[in-house]
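Entry 12.
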Amino acid sequence: MQQIKCRRLTALAAFALAIFHSAACAVAAERPAKLRTAYVSPIGAMAPLWMAAASSAFQGQVLDVELVYIQSNAAIAALVAGEVDAVQISAPAIVPVALAGGNVTMIAGLLNQMIFSFHAQKEIKSAEQLRGKIVGADRIGTPNDYGVRSALTKLSLKPEIDVQLLRLGGSAIQWTALQSKQIAASALTPPVSFNADAQGYTRLADTYDLPYQNIGLVIRKTEVEKRAEIWLRLLRAVQRGINAWYDDPQLSKSVLAKYTRDKDPAVLEKTYGFFTKQAGFNRDLTFTDRGFEQILRFFGSTVLPAAKDASPSQFYDTRIIDKLKK
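Predicted 3D structure (tokens):
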């Protein structure tokens, strides 16, 4: 009798232990994966990450994502150093680093069109009048520096020869410098570029017709396979955020107002329209080889000769997108 009682107690204990273990595993499985993800400017092009947060897409993929703003001239260094897990940034920022053997790769393309326009002081009406003056720019190799150089090339002006480049930082800082007349011209993006138009600054050129790999999600190359499941969930969330951008205009405009701090309804409407119709975000998250090729040709003929022999496939990895399509 005593033996039977002991066996029952042992069985009950084992059953209770199994339930506890099962519950603990369930809690662990439901615990969101933490990611620290950076965007590099308070401009409309950064909306995919913002929309994923606003539409609860991160929570839907059991992710705890902290969005941080890091200027583009420091973002890739922060990624390589392990300070963030991913960066939303355009391709020119990763080309010099990847060519030097840096631990970076793009795993999704979110926008495949160039969006810079080149604005000058109101009294400057032509490229010739800009000659000899100071133009705002960011550090060499950043997306803004690429945009400035591309616009100047379209105007048949050579950086550091026909104009002097003053490296102030990103578009937001340059906009302030343009308004204070510290610089004569700057490459801007929506919604700041639309504010410049509204205030009468001269739009000398835009770059909308140039092939370009704009923003994508960039991670450490050595972690593509190691954290593949987490990246797959991240891409699903961002894809849902992009779908919400198209499907919910009111939410999209409120998100733009929150992050860009632009409260003008007309500017918000124009910015939303631009990133919906003229330069729409990629629902399928694919890359553009033509965009990479254009960047590599431009870098190869200007500031980075090694880029001319590089292949677009050196700078992106399709493994996570391939999983997303299955």
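Annotation: The chain has a mean pLDDT of 91. The domain at 31-113+212-325 is CATH 3.40.190.10 (D-Maltodextrin-Binding Protein; domain 2).
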